[in-house]
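BUG: 3D viewer hangs when loading the predicted structure for this chain

Environment: internal workstation, default settings.
Expected: structure renders.
Actual: progress bar stalls at 90%.

Input used:
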Amino acid sequence: MNTSKAVASLVEILDLEKLEEDLFRGVSPKVGWQRVFGGQVIGQALVAASRTVVSKRHVHSLHCYFMRPGDPEVPIIYQVDRIRDGGSFTTRRVVALQHGKAIFSMSASFQVHEPGLEHFIAMPKVTPPESLPSEKELAEKYIDHAPENVRHYWQRARPIELRPTDLTHFISSRKLDPIQNIWFRATGDLPDDPAIQACVLAYASDMTLLDTSLYAHGRAVFDPQLQVASLDHAIWFHRPVHMEDWHLYTQDSPNTSGGRGFTRGSIYARDGALVASVAQEGLIRVRRAQAESEAKS
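Structure tokens produced before the viewer hung:
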């Protein structure tokens, strides 16, 4: 398999250790993060839930809340509650624990495959990924002028490659319409397992959403004057995914207020089929000193 080291690491952290029935342990990669990436916790929680469900039932929706920042130096314990096993649907609740406290909770629903009516809104017409600069090309062009935290982020090997269709937000502080189209895919081969593929999509779905809610303000998630964090996250899985292939993540942010930003996302396969829908609200708080300065100006 042509699996990159970063993808191999991702598959490894998704392979949770079973401690007891309905009790699992996960670890975080050693990459110097101050807190655990939200997508990792979503992906690991979905793995924990999936391992208590028969293989012919696949996840069709999940709803999450982030309660506390995760500590990347400490294992995360995932406790699964078997809420319901019905004739067609299975429901699970997962709580992630660290230092004796809940840091995250998720409810997920699984369904046996059923034929039925089908439609989806067409994928936007955008520049194809092959015509866009790769992350390596972007880093070589812009990294010398980027702040240290941004430079560190782009220099680290990651399991998901991102190719924005428009770079304006990334190279300027212009206020833009809160809309983003970005191609993404795994940077190496993954197991041919629908459950793992869905978990990797869940992992990737937490990327870039909060940033879209900042477009209208000419700011970015790396802004040191902002406190930014995911609060809740929901995914609806419509069709099977193959994360080694390019997917278009089209996003819009209808609202930012009350120290929170809300963003919606649609994930399309390369052939234009809608494979998942996402919604997220995140904390977007102007740090107190900056807020007081802006109020006086």
